[in-house]
Each structure stands twice: as C-alpha cells, then as structure tokens.
Amino acid sequence: MSGEVGPPLALLAELTHRCPLRCPYCSNPLELERASAELDEASWRRVLSEAAALGVLQVHFSGGEPLVRRDLAALVRHAGAAGLYSNLITSGVLLDRTRLEELVDAGLEHVQLSFQDTLPASADRIAGLADAHRKKLAAAALVREAGLPLTVNAVVHRQNLERLPDMIELALALGAGRLEVAHVQYYGWALANRRALLPSIEQLERATETVESARRRLKGVLTIDYVVPDYYAQRPKACMGGWGRQFLNVSPAGTVLPCHAAESLPGFDFPSVKTASLAEIWYRSEAFNRFRGTEWMPEPCHSCERREIDWGGCRCQAFQLTGDSARTDPACALAPDRALLDAARERDAAAPLREFRYRQIGAVPAVETRRAP
Amino acid sequence: MNPAPARVIVDGTSRLRFAPHVKFRHDETRGRWIVLAPERLLLPDDLAVEILRLVDGSLSVDGIVDDLARRFEAPREVIAVDVTRMLQDLVDKAVLAP
C-alpha cells in the first residue's frame, strides 16, 4: 500500500504550546507540553531539512504562539534555504516591528493572524487576554507595511457569529487578501466548551448567507474560505485531506501526527522525530498507515461513492463521540452513530452557556468522550 | 488608510506578473511545475505551465496569445478565450497581479 502513497505537501510545525492567549476552542490537545519538553533549534532544523527532502512544499509555523520561540527567524531562514515556503500562524500579540523585520529578512512569505471578534471587549474576553485585540490590529498593520500577504483567521461560534459582516469589513480594512471563516471544530478544548460555543441553526444559516453574498461582492478582492461546521453538515469533511495523505504535524515535543488533534487518540504509538526520520514515519509507521486509503473503512464508508472525497471524515471526532476511532464519523448523515451528534447538538444549542473553560497548561478538564450508555 | 480595493479585470492589454510572495517553480520530487502561494499549492497542467512561463510582467495578454497561437498552430480566438479565462481566475485568486 505504501507504493501508492505520495509525498506530503505540508508540514505543520507546532513549535510550542506556550501562548499568551487562552482561547476556549484552542486546537492544541488538553494535555499541553511545557517549555522543558520542546524540541531544540537543532532538532527543528533537522526536521525541516528532512521535510524538504521528503517532498514537503510548505511549512506552517504554528503553536501555541510560535513567536514565543526566540529561534523562530532562524528556523524560517533554514526552511527557506531548504526550499520550503514559510507561513506563520500567529495570534499577533507578540509581533513588533523588530521581530517582523527579522522574519521578513529570513524569508517569511505569509502571515495568518487570528482575530477573536470585532468588538475589542468581546475579543479580549474570548482570548482571555486584556488588550489582545488592539495588539492584533497593530500587528496586522505591520504585516501589510512589510508587504507580506495577510490572511485573517476568524474562528466563529455562538458568541461572535453575529459580527461576521463586521469581520469581513475588518479583513478588508486591514488589507487582507484572504479571510478564513473557521467554525469551531469540537475537539479537545472546544469540546469541553461546546455548550458555550455551538451556534444555533438560525445563526449558521445567516452566516452562510453572509459569506455567499460577500464572496460575490468581493470576487477578486478578498478570498473567503468557509466550511459548514460538522454539527450541521450532511457529510463529513475530508479531515486533513485524508489521514496521512497530504499533511504531517510535528508536536512541540517531536511527536509526528497525521493531524494536530490525533495525539489524544488512544491505542496509537505515534512516532517521534527523536527516534525515526520523517520519511520512515510517513511511509512506514503503523500510525500513519492505519487509516490510510479506504481498506480500513467500515460500512457505510467502504462502499460509499464519496470514500475518496471525504476519506471517512475525522478519526478524532469518531473517537470523541463514539469512543472508537475506527468508526464512521458521526458528522455523516449516513453514520450509524449520527444520533450521538444530533443529540449533542440539540442539547448544547438548546441550553447555551456563556462562561468558558479557558485553555491553560496543567489543567485538563474532563470531557465526555464515550458513547452514553 | 487603504484605498477601496477593486477587482482587476484582465483584457488583451493587461501585463501580468506573479504576485509578491507567489513562487512558480519546478518541483524535483514530483517532476512537475507548481505554484506556491500563501497556504496554497496549485498544480498547473501542461498548457497552463506554457501560459505561466510567459507571464513575466513584460508581455501583454495579447502577446502571450500570439506566442501560443504560433507555437501550437491553433486558432487565435480560441486560445484568447482560454488564456484570458485562466489568467482572470489566477488574478482573482491573487496569484497574479498587474
């Protein structure tokens, strides 16, 4: 089977889990790595060289907040020298002129900057950090002054979705070329906060109309990426473009994963860059091969005409909702376990909370990850 | 303040180039030409590669069409429609710019 596997397109390099923000939907795992566990600069350089040799074309420097690493510019420079296209995924709050100049000089190609809301007080409350929104606006201006392409990343949910039209205007005013409207994906921290985040169907429908109308109006000016959230979808998304098909993720401690959430899946022995090369891991590890292709699929996926479109959806969601990562993703309307997702949606959308359980290192909220008896 | 942005419409006189921070290069691993853009990868087919190799900011769209019509011995009107459509799409995606 590894004969059919092509090289990966992109590496998500999670340099750290440290972050000044505490967003309650953070995509990092509940068990966050401490600074002492992080790979050192020499190891990251080796990982970047191995990735380029393996055929990776783009690297996404991410976290946590990658700017907490003082060696970020050195790693960007190393990536560029290896032929990789460097993207920075940042909250922006630590970005000042000096750091940005260092990164531009090192060959950074693009910045993706997150915004939590358009109202400063709400944005700072969601981020769990005072004055965060103002710093992000300043960071966006610096990025555009430096001539780098800017993507605004807006994670949307019940508590900010009403301001989606304002977010589109904000992206335009900041000179962004692209806006990612990302509905919260309910894994890890976001799952622990689902009752505070899950939008209503009315909110979702308005948001979808807003995006469709803005796309027509702003064609050629602003590209808007948008995906309907799983909890209201009829078919699952092709998570990461399929397990082990396009992406690999290296965690702060050097664990290599098919997606950033996979570390929470039990029953896996995810390999480490400390003990194997990226090429060995990509082509030969059991973890990367387990859900590759279509052979592993249960019915109704295995005979589904969409099996090579959605690749069976998301393994982490299957585990988090059913307790078994090999089951059909309940985001599919044809899934035997769809009722679990429907019931969770009905319950959480009907009794919303306002309070968040904020992300923090060392706190691990208990999350229901099993099928109700 | 940023000026109000407007869509760029491609016509025969447009002179296009790759937008800043967009890379058109040959990928040795895959043995094909690729376009790298912010968090995007484009895999142009053989004809698209021929067109993109002529995009350098100096040749107009008409000039690109003339060159292709001559080399591929194809009707100019047909090539002009296809080339303009493709270039407009890439301008809309911010891969190419005036």
Strand order of the largest sheet of chain A: 7-6-5-4-3-2-1-8-9
Helix content bin of chain A? 25-40%
The termini of chain B sit apart by 21 Å
Instruction: Give the C-alpha Rg of chain B.
Output: 14 Å
Output mean pLDDT of chain A: 93
Low-confidence stretches of chain A: none
> Element order, helices and strands of chain B?
EEEEHHHE
The shape of chain A is: globular
Verbal overview:
- The complex is a heterodimer of chains A (373) and B (98).
- Chain A is an alpha/beta fold and 373 residues long.
- Chain A has helices at 41-54, 72-81, 97-106, 120-127, 132-145, 164-173, 188-192, 194-197, 201-217, 278-284, 286-290, 307-310, 315-322, 338-350, and strands spanning 10-14, 58-62, 85-90, 110-115, 150-156, 178-183, 223-226, 247-250, 256-257.
- Chain B is of the alpha+beta class.
- Chain B has 3 helices and 5 strands.
- Chain B has a 3-stranded antiparallel sheet, with no helix packed on it. A two-stranded antiparallel sheet of chain B has the order 1-5.
- In chain B, a hairpin with a 2-residue loop joins strand 3 and strand 4.
- Chain B is globular and about 35 Å long.
- The two termini of chain B are 21 Å apart.
- The model of chain B has no long low-confidence stretch (mean pLDDT 93).
- Classes of the chains: A alpha/beta (373), B alpha+beta (98).
- Chains A and B meet through loops of A and strand 3 of B.
